[in-house]
Amino acid sequence: MRKLIAMTFGLLLTASGFAFAQGVVLQLPAEDQSRITSMLGPGVVGNALPSNTITDASIYFPLKERAVTYQVTSGPRAGNSESSEFAKVRRPGGRMAWRFNLSRSLTGFISQAMDGGIIMPAVSDPGEGVIVVTTPANPFVLQGMKPGESRSFSQQVAVNYLDNPSQQDYSGSLTGTYTYLGTFQVTVPAGTFPAVLFRAKSQGKVGPANTVDTTYTFFAPQVGLVAMIMQEDVTAFWLFHIDSSTGRVLKSK
Fold it and tell me: Which of 28, 50, 101, 185 has a CA that sits 20 to 30 A from residue 169's CA?
């Protein structure tokens, strides 16, 4: 009898340990599901999968040079393909920094925080000759986040024209929340991946515009950004608050 009890207890421990190792399963809120489907298309986001704490952010956005292609799923250029490059940029003292083409018109500058998280301190729109610097930096993949966790942030924002970088043309502040919504099966032209989903909500005033924005980013382990919904036009959004949100999915890697 004791042997049977011990075996049963051992099985329970094994089962509970397995469940713990697999993480928690979070369902996507209806409002987020509706927005994502309308921007990325039906069938892109599938079943909810077990989620775990982000213990190594670089797994979800590998810091290595590569070129990928995204397919635009919504916005004026829906159906088009866009090449995107993730490249190292040189800095004094051997410090590593990176640039990443978020779209045809936007380039994000990426760095690794002291705790290992991936952050984006600035975004430029070369076509409009504008750069937006946020202090502290925009969260991209934050270290140590637990499934379902939200972190609040408060930022100072500076918008400068590149033809006169010494003059700060517009500035303002934002507040918001960055939430780890869970892990989902994501199917895009490049394949099917288990991808962690982050939502960033922000609001504030920059220059003449009151801004309200929600972005979504899906990151697959060892692959990187496999789907996203974010602003396309820095000038339109930050200075005039024209919604230029666009969806993109990974086409090839």
Answer: 101
- Cα–Cα distance between 247 and 217 in angstroms, integer? 10
Separation of alpha carbons 45 and 218, rounded Å: 10
Residues 250/217, Cβ–Cβ less than 8 Å: no
CATH of domain 23-252: 2.40.360
* Residue 93 tokens, joined: 């003292």
Q: Which two tokens stand for residue 7?
A: 């075996």
β-strands 130-141, 118-125: how paired?
antiparallel
Task: Domain ranges for the chain, please list them.
Answer: 23-252
| Amino acid type, 211 | T
CA distance 206 to 99: 24
**Identity of the amino acid at 93:** G
Distance CA 82, CA 75 (A): 13
Instruction: State whether residue 192 is helix, strand or coil.
Output: strand
Distance, CA of 17 to CA of 121 (rounded, Å): 39
pLDDT digits (tens, 9 = 90+) for 44-92: 999 999 999 999 999 999 989 999 999 999 988 899 999 999 998 877 7
